[in-house]
Amino acid sequence: MSSEHYSPTTIDQLQALVSAIQQAPEGDSLGGGLSAAQWALVAPYLQPLELGPSQVLFDQGSTDRSLYLIESGSLSVHYQDAKQRVRLAIVGSGSVVGEGAFFSHRARSATVQSNGVSRLWGLTPLRFGELSNRQPTAALALVMAVGGVLAKRLANRRLRVAAT
């Protein structure tokens, strides 16, 4: 996306995401890790993304490290082997995907695709670096919330596979 067409996200545009996070089941939610003031600081660094039904967000093995916060819809996490595609988990609104590669600097462990129309907010590593430099407290709150989701997934055998 060229910078001349980029307009920063505002906190008003994130209200549906914040609401989804507040209403999501605790087991796979970002929870209440950020205050309204912190979301206002994070907002300009997020970019909206809408996926159509069955659209792939990222493929297993890809090296993109962007993090995606799910405002609405649900995403399927698939591991692909030589014989078939196996559904591992479904991740819904108020949660996150891409956290494994974001933190580990490794290739994606699974393919993630939309089950229907889904709205996400993406954060690239570059934009996160800018956020960290300019708003370190908000950046820390965000990674602690995302790290909390990752820790819950790794502690739960059924959800472990959703760590992407």
TrEMBL record:
GO cellular component, one term: cytosol
Alphabetized GO MF terms: DNA-binding transcription factor activity
Domain of life: Bacteria
InterPro entries (alphabetical): cNMP-bd_dom, cNMP-bd_dom_sf, Env_Response_Regulators, RmlC-like_jellyroll
Full protein name: Cyclic nucleotide-binding domain-containing protein
SUPFAM superfamilies, per database record: cAMP-binding domain-like
Pfam families attached to this UniProt entry: cNMP_binding
Signal peptide span: none
Species: Comamonas flocculans
Residue ranges occupied by any Cyclic nucleotide-binding domain in the UniProt entry: 30-131
